[in-house]
From TrEMBL:
Region called Disordered, residue ranges: 1-20
Source lineage: Bacteria, Bacillati, Actinomycetota, Actinomycetes, Propionibacteriales
Highest rank taxon of the organism: Bacteria
A Pfam family reported for this protein in Swiss-Prot or TrEMBL: MST
Alphabetized Gene3D superfamilies for the sequence: dinb family like domain
InterPro entries in the record: DinB/YfiT-like, MST-like
Protein name per UniProt: DinB family protein
Length: 182
């Protein structure tokens, strides 16, 4: 099964134990999807990571990493923590810069993965501090006219976001080198 990501031994996404409780289940699913994205980008050159899907789309694995760094930052730093900081890899004038600006350079790859890992770490720290009984608490979504989301819905949304984009990543990786993934 050399065309699969996990070719021998146990799946690296397996934490070894079944999560107990609602929060632990959400956290585990999100952890698995984040790890899946990293696996799908593993061992590729900057050129391969920046390879676009089909014209006119600017979708690429590197663009997905940049996009998900921004998604993590928006939902956890801006919405959950209430921080007023600009979303990475995007400007008001260019909302698709996360994908359009995914250049096949080592510096672009390093910046994207460093930022994604940093945003994931900040999100994980915030979620770790949230008691399970608070999953129903509402958070105001910035820039959406007072719209709110519960912590539970935020976590489920993040799982959905990663699930969709990991599906994109499956197809992108298969087109690059034929590897398909679990």
């Amino acid at each position: 099964m050399a065309d699969m990501w996990v070719t021998a031994g146990p799946d690296p996404r397996d934490a070894g134990e079944q999560p107990v409780g609602e929060k632990a289940t959400y956290v585990d699913y999100l952890r698995i999807y984040r790890h899946t994205l990293a696996l799908k980008c593993e061992d590729l050159t900057p050129e391969q990571l920046a390879t676009r899907s089909v014209p006119p789309s600017s979708l690429s694995l590197l663009g997905l990493v940049r996009h998900l760094a921004g998604v993590e930052q928006f939902w956890f730093a801006q919405t959950a923590l209430g921080l007023d900081e600009p979303r990475p890899f995007r400007t008001p004038e260019h909302r698709d810069l996360d994908f359009d600006g995914a250049a096949p350079t080592e510096s672009c790859v390093t910046e994207a993965f460093d930022r994604w890992r940093s945003e994931v770490a900040r999100a994980e720290a915030w979620v770790d501090a949230v008691p399970e009984v608070d999953l129903g608490l509402e958070l105001v979504i910035p820039g959406r006219g007072g719209e709110v989301v519960t912590i539970r819905d935020l976590l489920v949304h993040m799982i959905e976001e990663y699930a969709r984009h990991c599906g994109h990543a499956d197809l992108l990786r298969e087109a690059i080198d034929g590897r398909t993934g679990q």
